[in-house]
UniProtKB/TrEMBL annotation, chains A, B, C, D:
Domain Class II aldolase/adducin N-terminal: from-to ranges: 16-199
Source organism phylogeny: Bacteria, Bacillati, Actinomycetota, Actinomycetes, Pseudonocardiales
Protein source organism: Amycolatopsis pithecellobii
Domain of life: Bacteria
Designated name of the protein: Class II aldolase/adducin family protein
Molecular-function annotations in GO: aldehyde-lyase activity; metal ion binding
Amino acid sequence: MTAAHTVRPTRDQVLKNLVIANRVLAAYEVVDGWGHVSARDPDDADSFIMSAVRAPALVRERDLVAIRVGDGEPPAQIKASVERHIHAGIYRSRKDVTAVVHCHAEALIPFGVAGVPLRPLAHTDAFLIDGCPIWEIRAATYRDTMLVDTAELGDSLAATLAQAPIALMRGHGATIVGASIHEAVYRAIYARHAALVDLAGRSLGTVRYLSTDEARSAADSTVKTFDRTWELWSTQHGATSL
Amino acid sequence: MTAAHTVRPTRDQVLKNLVIANRVLAAYEVVDGWGHVSARDPDDADSFIMSAVRAPALVRERDLVAIRVGDGEPPAQIKASVERHIHAGIYRSRKDVTAVVHCHAEALIPFGVAGVPLRPLAHTDAFLIDGCPIWEIRAATYRDTMLVDTAELGDSLAATLAQAPIALMRGHGATIVGASIHEAVYRAIYARHAALVDLAGRSLGTVRYLSTDEARSAADSTVKTFDRTWELWSTQHGATSL
Amino acid sequence: MTAAHTVRPTRDQVLKNLVIANRVLAAYEVVDGWGHVSARDPDDADSFIMSAVRAPALVRERDLVAIRVGDGEPPAQIKASVERHIHAGIYRSRKDVTAVVHCHAEALIPFGVAGVPLRPLAHTDAFLIDGCPIWEIRAATYRDTMLVDTAELGDSLAATLAQAPIALMRGHGATIVGASIHEAVYRAIYARHAALVDLAGRSLGTVRYLSTDEARSAADSTVKTFDRTWELWSTQHGATSL
Amino acid sequence: MTAAHTVRPTRDQVLKNLVIANRVLAAYEVVDGWGHVSARDPDDADSFIMSAVRAPALVRERDLVAIRVGDGEPPAQIKASVERHIHAGIYRSRKDVTAVVHCHAEALIPFGVAGVPLRPLAHTDAFLIDGCPIWEIRAATYRDTMLVDTAELGDSLAATLAQAPIALMRGHGATIVGASIHEAVYRAIYARHAALVDLAGRSLGTVRYLSTDEARSAADSTVKTFDRTWELWSTQHGATSL
């Protein structure tokens, strides 16, 4: 049996799933007025699709635009988020990545500013075993900016991310990647889960994180249930009424 | 007068109550994309009923399947959760148990990973006086897994649970039992309550837990009100629209 | 001008306001499956009105029953909460009290078990300046119970409450009183507010509580706005659909 | 291209946006039964518009009244909040201010009573770099009051605010200003965000705040996105059904 999320989706399915993903991430407080989720174009690996400038909860299929991986540029006349360079930089360096979430989740920012990487305390968050680097924009630019608004900054973020599933961005938020939209959304929601569990655990005493072996085993088993979480999230929060 | 929850239910009532229980537990954030609640089959004590692979908030009566207590196996051709062995193991060892909840509640995981058993601070949580052991899967298996996916692991969890109402599972979640669906759901919701109250209490100073005598008295009186809490929860969250 | 809440209500208004109060307190998580709010009968000062055994969110006008202040007994054949003795005890000792809320609010229990009385950090919570004693049931009875299920225990709680607006009950919850239903509901909601603000304030450092003079002045001004908060709460949460 | 929030609105637009702002601030728990948002009258710079005495979530366009900046007085016969003097004092001293929010947000009070000014940990909260003074009413009056109920107290608060975007008010709440309704609402919602992020960050360790240069750059970029956040908030929470 092949799970739905492992079948290579058509472009039409990607468009529909991106709209659902925007709404699900908003419902789970991963994104707010900002934040975005993108997917590599299944018909053109040198292009990715994300929404134009619009709050995720309000994104409709007609708000989606294709952007070039090579330089992060949208079609002429199209308004696109300056932070498309986050996505373009990662798609350039990570051939395995098919979807990217960028967010300012309130639960993740404290870890970035305190210099504390997320680590897995529960099997649902096991993917964190593959790393959670913290990107420092000051290491990448002399300009006084917090935004990833150039191809160079996108490359710098991607270099810090390396092969990890998530990078925290000091003073800004986080960027999460996946081999599918299902996986990127899953990881974004459970990165938030890991942060909340860790904060509470620390107030009780010394916590025991998953071992590397435990985490790799658990990560394998959660991947097999992406159809279940996606069915829940899309049923409860994915509807577009606009 | 006999309270409804103390009358032995028919199989049809068990099926309906399992659907309600799934939705109530989701509404109270005891379960999320995973987690499950089962009940012993009133017509066959060697069998228990739980949902197939589906997020609890979406479970319908037609998703329920009967599984053998003896070996945890479902009928041929039926897809069942690998973690059915949690339920089977407990039904084998605890004749008094009629319902089991397994969950990854965000509020409970910190206690398991910090090695801090839940204890009752309020009379609503008095059932915790009968113990809250923490199960360590490493003590039971050499395999690098976090899942209770064999009959042996189910037996190990049941051995740690012993006569307690709840066992925390390090790095995973918790399993809660009851003499009825009403009781298992009650205990799952109030285990979460106990965890949140304890976290806040510790930040204020030294807390006073219920004494054993106080807790036993209070546990007796809360059992008498299961009809009231069930009426509330099933009215507010039990509806199936699918 | 006379504010609506200061006009002596008719019995019919009291019944309607009690139903609204039940639903508002449930919406603000002051009460859950248990808890109750009562009012002195405007036509009979030796009687008070509260719901029979039913979760507050589900209470309807026909669930309300009159109970004698003198001995806490309901009419023959009527099922009433064992904890009616909380209310009866207070109505016996406090002629100024017209309404009583009893609750197990998750936000208040930590203060009772840690032995930390609530104090006002904000002018909305200024009524706390008149005291927040913590009642210890062990000081009142040799029985191993947590419930106020006798007239003697009701008198003991009332003696600890004395002239205060609220008493915390160790291991149990809290009881809040007022000169009107509006005031008792207000104080119950803002006792919870005070608890949450205090918990957060302590984690930042040393906090400055209102002085006695500041609090008395602020308490006088909040009383003048009970019509405003009641309009909000009853509009948003008071509807009965049952 | 000119963003909508930078175009000088008509008086009719101001009235509509004030109603929306009231509901949005209530949905984000910035305001509760009290709190208010005002705007300078675009047709009369010596006058500002705010709701009469009514909970923000219930405010309708017909509840709005014009008040004189000079002395904080409403038209004859009109009932107005005593705290209109907060707004009048600020409009007198800050010609750049077009909108003012006053609130008792539960998330902000702990910082005021602990004497801890808010500082930006994330680029969304960068406006805080321009200061977050804490106003002490005791420094301004000999009366035992917590309310800003005279023109003199309004002037005192405005003097403490000086050129900052927000002032915390010890034992009371906060007042936030902006060059537009969009900006004042944005800052009020993200002051709350900054407070919650800071509380969590402190429990993890030493946090790194934005540098002055980072914050000024980030504040400039968030101003450019006020249309996006306003579209989200007004679509989700701005509807008037009353």
